[in-house]
Amino acid sequence: MSGSNGSSYQKDSGAAYQPIDVNGGEPPSGNGKKKVLLAVVLVAIAGVVAFLCVPKKSALSDAVKTAGLNVTSSGKLKLFDPQNRYVLEDFDARPTFSDFLPGVAGYYGKPVWSFYVNRGQGIASFGTGTKDYPILEFNAANKAYQLTPYIGFRTFIRGTRKLGSFETEPFTPRLSRNLLEDDDESDKPKRIMYVGTNEMEVQEYDVKNGLAVAVKYFVLPEEDFSSLVRRTTFTNTGSTELTLSALDGLAKIEPSGGELDGMLKNMGRTLEGWMGVYHADDTLTMPYYKMSTEPGDSASVMVEEAGHYCLSFIEKEDTTPELLPIVYDWTKVFGESTSLEHASGLAASSVEEILKSAQHGDATTSSAFAAVDKVTLAPGENITIASFYGKVMKIDDVPKIAAAVTKPGFVAKKFDRARTLINELTEGVETNTANPLFNGAVKQMFLDNSLRGGMPTLLGNVDSDLTYDEDPGLKVFHTFSRIHGDLERDYNAFAIDPTYYSQGPGNYRDVAQNRRNDVSFAPRIGSFDVQEFLSFIQADGYEPLTVEAVVYLMHDKDRAQNLADEMTADAKSAKMLGEVLTGGPFRPGQLFQLIEQLNINITAKNEDFLNAVVAVADDSPMGVYGTGYWGDHWDYYMDLIEAYLQIYPDGEETLMWGHELRYFFSTATVKPRSKKYVLTLTFDGKSKHVLQLDSTYYDQDKAAEQQAFVDQSTGLLGNDAYWQRTATGKPFTSTPIAKLFLLGAMKFAMRDSYGMGIEYEGGRPGWNDAMNGLPGMVGSGMPETYELLVLLKYIRKVANTYGHDIVVPSELSNMVKTVEKALDELEATGFEDPEDLPLDVPPELFNYWDTVASARENYRNDVQYYFSGNLTSLPADEVVPMVDRWIDQVEMGIARAIKIGSHGYKDDGTSGISPAYFSFDVTKWKLNEGRNDVGLPLVNALAMRVGRFPLFLEGPVRYMKTVQDDLNTTKDVYEKVLNSGLRDDGLKMYTISASLKGQSFDMGRMMAFSPGWLENESIWLHMSYKYYLQLIRGKLYEHFFSEMKGGGMLPFMDPDVYGRSLMECSSFLASSAFSDPARHGRGFAARLSGSTAEFMTIWFLMFVGPEPFYLNKHGELEMQLVPALPSWLFEDEEYEGTRDDDGSLTVSFKLFSSILVTYHNPDGGDLFGVNPEGYKVTMKDGNKVHVKGPSMPKELAADIRKVSLVDSIDVYF
User: Could you give the CA distance from residue 57 to residue 54 in angstroms, rounded to a whole number?
Assistant: First the structure.
């Protein structure tokens, strides 16, 4: 705020950002005792909101001090409060944004999902499992912004004072401020939103009526039932006694009744015929919302027993409160005002009269309002209504839940636990620099990274120091994972299991990237992630679309039954548990769910029971094919391997040759070119061209093969159905290095006809999936070529280092022989690139491509259903020169690509920046007598011409991975990108692409978007962060930190421009190319972005260094910490630093989520790749080990890697 009239601090006047001004305000006179004692911070903050609009400076300052809010030296509120919650003043008058609560209820809790917007009272939708099971209907963001104030949570108040009465609805849009007015309509209520990591709160101070209302939401943690908890606090801020009656709750609540989302939107009125409100007792306090049966029209009728509940009461500290009656008949509140804008029913009646009248809940969508009648508050007093909304499987559970939640102190305790729970989950990246915003951003990034990829959780033999690789009884389970599918990414179908150890599936590329840093935070997981993802490599060189959490299987029935006997209280329970454990694959949540449903009596604690079971079970990865084969899924394997080797450089040989991995088996088959090169009309219908269409097909024979593994008792496919076998039924396996060699060989054989990019011949593009038309254009990608170069160099390195044979399927060996022969023939032609490369593919290169592509297709045909089981050993001394030859070809293709260049609006192809994509126009073809499914003729290609595209940031980003050890080349790329069409000079950021003006709509959906929006020339944060990562990897430290602090990275963006919490990433920012300047730089599509994976890698490089563990010249393990920290993280003009006893500035962080590391910087300068002068390592037993020099010897390094033996490390520079 900028003055005593309560005007907004964020009013757009063209000036720079100004924090909230708290220098104002005389509070209303009068004091009173609290009706209900709440947490001091809640009451104090409500008081601060109240005081923001009144005129006495000292009283406001006292209130701010009491609340403990962050205040600048000028007396203005900071963007974040003491709980590190983002503070948004006049939130409902700001540009819209959506967000979500993380859906984390703890390991032994059952979560709900919930989304919120900065409109109305926030919560826009919530439910259990998926959006098919809503309690408040899921709506896409554009609709949620409109509907939330009306169908969401509402509060209606009738208040009476000595001098009169009033009626009001807090947070109603009718009383939202218009910030375009000169005084911001400061006579209207003041509203503030607080965005926390595991909570959201909205507050309103109504100075006219002397009433403050605060509403707080959180997901109930660590209970055996799921619930969204809402706490509504009413505070009398006036100077006289206030008597109020109120209705507080949901305007519309959906019943339980099967998968409803689609039906709600397409046949909602008919669906209401199944709806009804039932009651757990003979009062109005425990309504139960469900359908009579699951809606349908089949011969099989499913009676619905599960239901949604609403329980509300006024919180009391020392006594058990009574439940409040619930108004479920929406017409009693709104009358016939079907817009729900006005509470016409309540206006013509009273709360008391509504409660006395008959309510009806059949054949309609009902409401869920807690009713409070005639409560008197003295000045300063307040009451809080606590409400629980959730789902149970039977109505008899509702009274049990009511008894639990009404225990004195339950709500406050659970709210505190919701906070500490998230703190515990993120404390492993505790970072203490001079900049509090940066420190908070690290935790938020870690949380969101874990939500996207799952948080690695150790199960089984957890009490030793052994790793996953050393102890078969130690298992890794990723908890709390979820695919995005939020209000702005409405195209995705998220799933959050409402079970213990809740998790949901994720997209392959998302999970592979966001698990990159797992081993950096939890070294005991060892090579788990590497093994899991390499297992997903199929025989054809592709991977599935979706990654699910691992499952556990118990094959030894006797062992399972012995365990069941030990863990249960009676013979019946033991028998049922034994059957559950051997009945098929299970996850922890499913196991506990079955135990609950079958009433199995377990004697051990949940944690002990689960660890005992998992320790003796086998684990298996799980994936789902999905649609098409994406070109980039394999791009992330080397990141996983490199992350592992940063911690376990001494484990490389075992990693590559010491494991046997299976091959994932999908029901889709890639067509050969002769069946997917389709002759069709061009867009204008004036000519014909060849497109690559329907590249994969559902293979009925593969599906029939899987049917052999159907579980006869459940009808479901068994786990073995998803893994390829030999013709004799034996699972086929290879070592990790063999699978990498197969992958490298396949991708080498997938290079385009000009030898530049890797073909997108599986029907899907790469990372930039908005280029969905590129596979149809017979397109290829340089990003994958750069990843291939990295992969081939690694294969060469390990083959040369360890000298072991690489044993591959004989079918692959045959393909490789054909590839080698084709290379011999190409070299025999004497072909060399001319000085001026033609766009028409030279015949020599085309013939090589045709031969190799045919070899690839023949190989795939050979292994389409089975491997033969025959193996070929490739000696290292043959592999190395072979791969050397492939590398030479790849590097020639890269040089060729840069020479051909990009081409687009104001881009003549001479920038010297790597292009990202090419298309290939089939200029000559021959009909092959085939036709596709819609009758179009199929052709064989005889000649091709390359097509070029504008610059895409992914091109130089991936290229920089191949030159990151070359400082000069990296800097040259940076300078070129800085001066290219990829730079948004207005925002000082980088766009996903240069201008696409003039490009064909054939390239994909990005052309359907306005420039600056979504994937068309916007700031795509993930790719921007990948770019920044390459800067710090390439040791361009000053450039990197200039980009970070200059606003290119969070939390250093302009909050007024970004428009949401500076702690949270967005998928994209509207760039300066967008037509509406008001949206430039604003973030859209909240969180769960791959940028968090890049940020956590950046964090690791900043605080740990690129190679913490390495082998010295004698092959011995050593450890070093070589950070890259700018001086302003130690101290700057705005933030004072922390000093040690010697006066050195310090920064600290948690290493491996446990060991406190402190850097001592005597002169406070930049620490950019500077080696330490020494270390002091404090062990858990109190002993201190002092080390002089830049590195720590093998015994100490090994102890640190084990984590449990070491308490802290002090590092001196």
Answer: 9
